[in-house]
UniProtKB/TrEMBL annotation, chain A:
A Pfam match: Dak2
Biological function: ADP-binding subunit of the dihydroxyacetone kinase, which is responsible for the phosphoenolpyruvate (PEP)-dependent phosphorylation of dihydroxyacetone. DhaL-ADP is converted to DhaL-ATP via a phosphoryl group transfer from DhaM and transmits it to dihydroxyacetone binds to DhaK.
PANTHER family: TRIOKINASE/FMN CYCLASE, TRIOKINASE_FMN CYCLASE
Reactions performed catalytically: dihydroxyacetone + phosphoenolpyruvate = dihydroxyacetone phosphate + pyruvate
Keywords assigned: Glycerol metabolism, Kinase, Transferase
InterPro entries, alphabetized: DhaK_L_YcgS, DhaL_dom, DhaL_dom_sf, Dihydroxyacetone_Kinase
Any one Gene Ontology BP term: glycerol catabolic process
Keyword Coiled coil: no
Taxonomy of the source species: Bacteria, Bacillati, Bacillota, Bacilli, Lactobacillales
Extent of the signal sequence: none
Gene field: DAK_2
Matching NCBIfam families: dha_L_ycgS
Single GO MF annotation: glycerone kinase activity
Entry protein name: phosphoenolpyruvate--glycerone phosphotransferase
From TrEMBL, chain B:
Keyword Transferase in annotation: yes
Source taxonomy: Bacteria, Bacillati, Bacillota, Bacilli, Lactobacillales
Functional summary from the UniProt entry: Component of the dihydroxyacetone kinase complex, which is responsible for the phosphoenolpyruvate (PEP)-dependent phosphorylation of dihydroxyacetone. DhaM serves as the phosphoryl donor. Is phosphorylated by phosphoenolpyruvate in an EI- and HPr-dependent reaction, and a phosphorelay system on histidine residues finally leads to phosphoryl transfer to DhaL and dihydroxyacetone.
Subunit description: Homodimer. The dihydroxyacetone kinase complex is composed of a homodimer of DhaM, a homodimer of DhaK and the subunit DhaL.
EC number, UniProt record: 2.7.1.121
Protein's organism: Lactobacillus corticis
Family annotation (Gene3D superfamilies): Phosphotransferase system, mannose-type IIA component
GO CC terms, sorted: membrane
Gene Ontology BP term (one): glycerol catabolic process
Descriptive protein name: phosphoenolpyruvate--glycerone phosphotransferase
Length: 193, 122
């Protein structure tokens, strides 16, 4: 399906709301296996996105994603900034060719993997993206499947990011970036429903 | 071609402190640093890294970092910079020290990189 500008705008609004509501929880997830800042980082970033979009209404999808990327890249301050920032930057570039949702998201995932060097199974946000994208493409994605993908990061040993310094000790905790990506995809499902 | 060094750390004091150690053996090597977020919290900032690139008078930069987002933001900044940027996944203190001392002695880049290779830890 093609993603319209108003749907994408709605998507970002809903994602921002969800981040704001859950910022303490996301930072709690980041406490045992990180530095307890993921929710606050993301909330700062999404606030900057909101400010940027309020200052200048983007003319098209590419513009919307570009502004979002720049706000996240410059304001987040943790790994999730360049990662989500690169995802939106790649979607912005892709949007110049097509507004087809699956190809936008495929470009985003390729960007995240290039930026962070993580693969599926490394206990990062990439695990959720890898699980969700094929389901979305087939039209079978549900909130429950998103939850499952997030939960699946729990038993993994982290290979990338701060949690990787803990080795075996990173087992038994949900990855905070996987959780925020879960919110991103739930917001998307709602926005395009 | 003249070379400079850029240090990127999550902590402002770390980024400011390491150049002192390097400058002791490399008083003629341009060294700049980017530490912490824009609000000087713990983290890294593309904007600060871009500034450290621009403020460094050298034409070509060797960059060293501590963890995680420092590398990603360094890569983002180097994609936006006109100067050639070399990024090393090496032990921060030891490799930056090594590069500084060798640059001061006029050693060529390939030889410096050979010296850095065993210090790769990330
Ligand atoms: N190399 C990576 N590839 C993909 N995702 C990553 C990578 N590193 C970290 N992440 C994701 O980012 C999340 C952490 O984001 P957060 O905003 O807390 O950054 P951080 O780890 O504190 O940043 P920093 O590297 O500056 O310490 C992790 O839960 C993980 O999902
Ligand atoms: Mg963190």
């Amino acid at each position: 399906m093609d993603l319209a500008l108003d749907q994408a705008t709605k998507w970002l609004e809903l994602f921002g709301d969800e981040i704001e509501k859950n910022k303490a929880y996301l930072s709690d997830l980041d406490t045992p296996i990180g530095d307890a800042d993921h929710g606050f980082n993301m909330a700062r970033g999404m606030e900057a996105v909101e400010t940027s979009l309020a200052q200048k209404a983007p003319a098209d999808l590419a513009g919307l994603f570009k502004q979002t990327a720049m706000a996240l890249i410059t304001k987040v301050g943790g790994a999730s900034g360049p990662l989500y920032g690169t995802a939106f930057l790649e979607m912005s570039k892709q949007a110049a060719q097509t507004s087809e949702l699956n190809s936008l998201l495929a470009a985003a995932l390729a960007g995240i993997k290039k930026r962070g060097g993580a693969a599926a199974g490394d206990k990062t946000m990439v695990d959720v993206w890898e699980a969700v994208l094929p389901e979305l493409a087939q039209g079978t994605l549900t909130d429950a499947k998103i939850d499952e993908a997030v939960e699946a990061t729990k038993p993994l040993i982290a290979k990338k990011g701060r949690a990787s310094y803990l080795g075996e000790r990173s087992k038994g905790h949900i990855d905070p970036g996987a959780m925020s990506s879960g919110y991103l995809f739930k917001a998307l499902l709602k926005a395009v429903a | 071609m003249n070379y400079g060094i850029v240090i990127v750390s999550h902590v402002p004091e770390l980024a400011q402190g390491l150049p002192k150690l390097l400058q002791q053996v490399a008083k003629d090597v341009p060294i700049t640093a980017a530490g912490g977020t824009d609000d000087d919290e713990i983290g890294t900032s593309v904007t600060k890294i871009m500034t450290a690139f621009a403020d460094n008078p050298a034409d070509e930069l060797l960059t060293f970092y501590d963890l995680g987002s420092a590398k990603m933001n360094l890569e983002l900044a180097s994609e936006m910079s006109d100067k050639p940027i070399h990024l090393y996944d090496t032990a921060l203190v030891e490799s930056a020290y090594s590069a500084a001392a060798l640059l001061e002695a006029g050693v060529k880049l390939p030889e410096i990189e050979a010296q850095l290779a065993p210090l790769k830890i990330k």
